[in-house]
Write a structure and sequence with these properties.
The protein is α/β, with parallel strands linked by helices. It has 15 helices and 21 strands. It is found in: Cell membrane.
Length: 462
């Protein structure tokens, strides 16, 4: 399958010439299951793009050295020949959607490779059961949750039977049940295939793996091994306001639906108080992100109301929006400008004088050698997520909503995010987050709410 001789890839258009490089020889064979691990932003996703042939086929950077698949390079005529053999799941599954409808999207890859109608129906039935896709047929792809989108793209790829699967954080948005089922499926299909996986759920993928590759902060690719990292992260000291803010949010009989035949939220009720950090859990497609859009005032409820009380004043439904900071599930939804520097300037405008001095400290904690002149769209997905968190926190809102705050993060970055949320808690902010990360919930959640069948239920901490 793959033979990688020493190579260097240099990114184009950088004021600091970022590279990823290999200075030894690596061989990946059929039946291997390879884990690629390392810090966020080191170059793991770039390495997968090299293995797919996207680099150098569609890259303006410079690749020097030899990367062979079945004895041939991955670019030119061989890139076209390998389209069905090597499939690559991007970290952001929405970037791979073609069709507006879910069924058309699922069938597209098979149609492209001339599958018969009988073959397509058979694969559709198989993956509908495997990934619980029945509830998404008939939906627009734009209405899918990230977890639903991830399952759809995965299913459409697996249906055409590739020889090599390159999976970039394939379970980042899956709930624990879906994640467990996916790993069980990988265990079945890994025989007679090559699987190469970037995944931060190290303990869960460990039994599947027979090779480990480490990509460090400087982009150096080496054979590696799993370790248990225990990071100690220094506390952040945010200046305390002279008067603590008193904020309360009340959700009463909240109902909402996108379609008449399915009510997504049904008379949901919840309360949130100053200084609380609350986790919201639920299976993919239950409506967690929709609940956040209602809670922020982006969407209007069909029935019921949301009240935010702040310093003696009350705001209702869409009037809440100016008081809310929302970390969207897709970090690119935050970006409007050409450079990271310009993006941050917009957020810095809202920083109080007391907190302005901390912006450089927070940037150095969240990023390794960041180039502020670079486009935010050129960051890794993990770096994009950390940038979107900082941009939102710098707005200094009373209620902060985090939709999957730790996806794509290495352990050190997760610890930095935990320290930041704990410090913001001391300021009396309300912080609510959606996550499937048991570790994060255990470390910071005061309470846990589960969204199920349209209603919110408080559950005991594990």
């Amino acid at each position: 399958m793959y033979k990688l001789s020493p190579f260097t890839y240099t990114f184009a258009g950088r004021s600091k010439a970022k590279k990823i490089f290999l200075d030894s020889t690596l061989i990946f064979e059929r039946n291997d299951t390879v884990a690629i691990i390392g810090p966020s932003g080191g170059g793991k996703s770039t390495f997968l793009k090299i293995l797919k042939g996207i680099i150098p086929e569609y890259s303006s950077g410079k690749l020097e050295g030899e990367v062979l698949f079945n004895g041939h390079p991955l670019s030119g005529v061989y890139f076209q020949e390998n389209l069905q053999k090597i499939l690559y799941l991007f970290q952001n599954p929405f970037s791979q959607l073609i069709y507006p409808g879910t069924e058309e999207e699922f069938l597209f890859s098979m149609e492209n490779f001339n599958f018969t109608r009988e073959q397509m129906d058979r694969e559709k039935e198989k993956f509908e059961k495997l990934f619980n896709l029945k509830n998404i047929w008939g939906k627009k792809t734009s209405e899918l949750s990230n977890g639903e989108c991830q399952k759809l793209v995965l299913a459409s790829m697996l249906a055409i039977g590739p020889d090599v699967l390159l999976l970039d954080e394939p379970t980042a948005f899956l709930d624990p049940t879906a994640r467990k089922e996916f790993y069980q499926y990988l265990d079945v299909i890994r025989k007679d295939r090559l699987l190469i996986i970037v995944d931060h759920h190290v303990d869960e993928i460990r039994p599947l793996i027979n090779k480990v590759i480490f990509v460090d902060h400087d982009g150096h690719i080496t054979p590696g091994f799993f370790t248990k990292n225990n990071f100690v992260v220094e506390d952040i000291s945010l200046p305390k306001p002279k008067t603590a803010e008193e904020v309360n949010v009340t959700v009463s009989d909240l109902s909402f639906s996108y379609h008449k035949d399915r009510e997504l939220l049904k008379e949901a009720n919840a309360t949130f108080k100053s200084g609380e950090v609350v986790a919201v859990r639920g299976r993919n497609g239950e409506g967690k992100s929709t609940f956040f859009k209602l809670l922020s005032g982006i969407l209007k409820p069909k029935k019921g109301q949301i009240l935010l009380e702040k310093n003696g004043k009350t705001y209702k439904n869409d009037k809440i929006f100016p008081h809310v900071g929302f970390v969207f599930q897709n970090p690119e939804a935050h970006f409007f400008f050409d450079t990271i520097e310009e993006e941050l300037k917009q957020s810095f405008r809202f920083l109080s004088k007391e907190h302005t001095v901390l912006k450089d400290d927070l940037l150095s904690r969240f990023f390794h050698d960041i180039d502020l002149k670079k486009s935010p769209f050129l960051l890794s997905e993990g770096e994009k997520r950390r940038l979107s968190i900082l941009m939102t926190v710098f707005l200094e809102k009373s209620l902060i909503l985090y939709d999957e705050p730790t996806f794509g993060q290495d352990q050190k970055s997760i610890e930095e995010i935990i320290v930041l949320i704990r410090e913001l808690k001391k300021l009396g902010l309300i912080q609510v987050f959606i996550s499937h990360d048991d570790y994060l919930i255990e470390k910071i959640a005061d309470r846990v709410l589960v969204l199920e069948a349209g209603r919110l239920y408080e559950v005991p901490r594990a």
